[in-house]
Design goal:
heterodimer; A: mainly alpha; 2 strands; about 0% strand; B: about 280 residues; mainly alpha
Chain lengths: ~270, ~280
């Protein structure tokens, strides 16, 4: 039951999905659509586990009071705030002060609760009660403040100006800068990789130089542009094609191993 | 630019500089930016998945009738099954019943692997093989211009290069003799491909870096010194004050680090331990 049933489920659903691909019938398509919706839903619930794990790790780090314990507070606060903004809509022209007050009360209440549940302090009950009290204050604010409201069922939160600002001025700059930072590390890595020690490294160096010089201003002219395009579209295409075929065959082989119960790593221990 | 917009832009500039400060070493500003990124990204994806996937794929299907009857009155009530399966994932929280979470996981893996087999074959393997089997342009073998991509020799090189690279990945036979020669040509092709891809990636990262510098210069720096278009002229001073405040934070940190370095230099070196 504990180990056999999952193996049977993988085999049955795996085989079903392979067969349905070759059955061009309306019912087959319906089953496929339905099962695809299933895995989206199950996948989202699995992501909730990941989210909980992030919260648990952060709270444990804060409670340990070890070096740099303050930073997970930033993670938790930004996580809750982003979710709060995504689930709320602000009435047009409304003042934001009461909205921010509500968020602050909510953050403190949540923190008290988390401390009460997961903390090891002696005054756990006190913290739980404080959290509950603050949650009641927050609920009253939410009920009587008409400048904003929760929207769980409709996606107004996606156009909430705070949600948009957090995305535009925090997430996008950070994401772009994190990748831009790689420019420095990849340059030092390329110095090591491109050293012409033997024929293979020299080929790597030549191809990379041609492609990189193409994107730099200089007296390179049309010939370099054409050489670069040729390198990208002929030898690079051949290499990438072989790799893609290899990856495709690898995925199929692994999928077969999973369906046939040879690969069981997903079940974990126990 | 409105003052609030500039305030947000200044915060974005601070975060940009904070991430770049990692080039010196791991520091409090970078740690702050890193943890903020984790939290905001996680929150963002929760919201996107909720509004973009969970509501349309589950909630709206279970509550399209009168909301107080929920799934009992829904036209697609059978969506309650994946909901239950999803909830079963939470059995992981309890050690004794954690095995229950294997059922939805097994269904997820079964469906996705079963789907992957024909799709991978059709979309990756077969499509690449079809593209490789296009007839070679023998009528214009050397092409019409310098390094013509559509010429016969280019197409022949793609065909031979792909076969050779695949031969290189075949490790069940020793790479000796004619087989070894083909494999050697395969590794040459792969090296040219890796070099081109790596060079392309380097340039992509550098263009991202240029974009961030342009943001600091144009969107932030120039905006700080050009308050035209704002309703209140006094904002001009506020813009510049914010601009210099951000630089001051980094300057203070640099001085702090420099002082730390000088102090460590002044300290006498540890005497060699003497064994009794």
């Amino acid at each position: 039951m504990k180990r056999q049933l999952p193996l049977i489920l993988v085999f049955v659903f795996g085989t079903l999905m392979v067969i349905q691909y070759f059955v061009p019938h309306e019912n087959s398509e319906t089953v496929k659509g339905f099962l695809l919706d299933w895995i989206v839903i199950i996948g989202i619930f699995a992501l909730a586990l990941g989210l909980w794990s992030l919260v648990q790790v952060s709270v444990a780090k804060i409670n340990s009071r070890k070096e740099n314990w303050e930073y997970p507070l930033v993670t938790l606060a930004s996580l809750v705030m982003m979710m709060f903004f995504g689930f709320t809509a602000i009435t047009e022209g409304a003042s934001l002060w009461s909205y921010f007050l509500a968020i602050t009360v909510f953050l403190i209440a949540l923190w008290m609760f988390l401390q009460g549940f997961m903390g090891q302090a002696a005054n756990r009950n006190m913290k739980l009660l404080s959290g509950l009290g603050l949650l009641i204050v927050f609920s009253l604010l939410a009920i009587f403040d008409s400048s904003w409201e929760f929207k769980f069922y409709t996606a107004e939160g996606l156009t909430n100006q705070m949600f948009v600002h957090f995305f535009d001025y925090i997430m996008i700059p950070l994401q772009a800068t994190m990748f831009a930072l790689l420019a420095f590390f990849i340059t030092s890595a390329s110095y090591r990789a491109f050293r012409a020690r033997n024929l293979l490294a020299t080929l790597l160096l030549i191809a990379a130089l041609i492609v990189m010089l193409r994107f730099t201003p200089g007296p390179w002219g049309e010939y370099l542009a054409k050489t670069s395009a040729w390198v990208m579209n002929v030898p690079n295409l051949a290499a990438q094609r072989a790799i893609v075929i290899g990856i495709g065959l690898g995925i199929v082989a692994t999928a077969l191993k999973v369906i046939l119960g040879i690969e069981r790593g997903y079940m974990g221990k126990g | 630019m409105e003052f609030t917009t500039f305030l947000w832009t200044t915060f974005a500039a601070f975060l940009t500089l904070a991430v770049f400060s990692f080039l010196y070493k791991d520091n409090p500003m970078y740690k702050f930016a890193e943890h903020l990124f984790v939290g905001v990204s996680a929150g963002y994806f929760v919201i996107i998945l909720w509004h973009g996937a969970l509501v349309p794929n589950l909630f709206k299907k279970l509550a399209d009738g009168d909301w107080y009857l929920l799934w009992l009155n829904a036209s697609e009530w059978w969506y309650f099954v994946p909901f239950i399966l999803g909830v079963m994932m939470f059995a992981r929280f309890f050690k004794k019943s954690s095995w229950i979470s294997r059922w939805p996981l097994a269904m997820y893996i079964g469906i996705s692997t079963g789907l992957a087999i024909p799709l991978e074959m059709a979309n990756r393997v077969n499509r690449q093989l079809w593209a490789m089997m296009e007839p070679i342009n023998w009528s214009s073998f050397w092409g019409e211009r310098y390094l013509d991509i559509g010429s016969g020799y280019s197409e022949l090189l793609i065909f031979v290069g792909t076969i050779a690279a695949l031969v290189y990945f075949f490790f069940s036979k020793a790479h000796t003799g004619a087989f070894g020669a083909v494999a050697k040509f395969g590794i040459w092709t792969l090296m040219l491909g890796f070099g081109a891809s790596f060079g392309f990636t380097v340039m992509a990262r550098i263009s991202l870096f240029i974009n961030r510098i342009q943001f600091l210069d144009i969107n932030w720096g120039q905006a700080a010194f050009d308050a035209s278009g704002t309703a209140n002229e006094n904002y001009h001073a506020g813009f510049q004050a914010l601009f210099w405040a951000v630089w001051l934070i980094f300057l203070v940190y640099a001085v702090f680090e420099f002082k730390k370095y000088l102090n460590s230099k002044d300290k006498p070196s540890q005497p060699e331990s003497t064994q009794a």
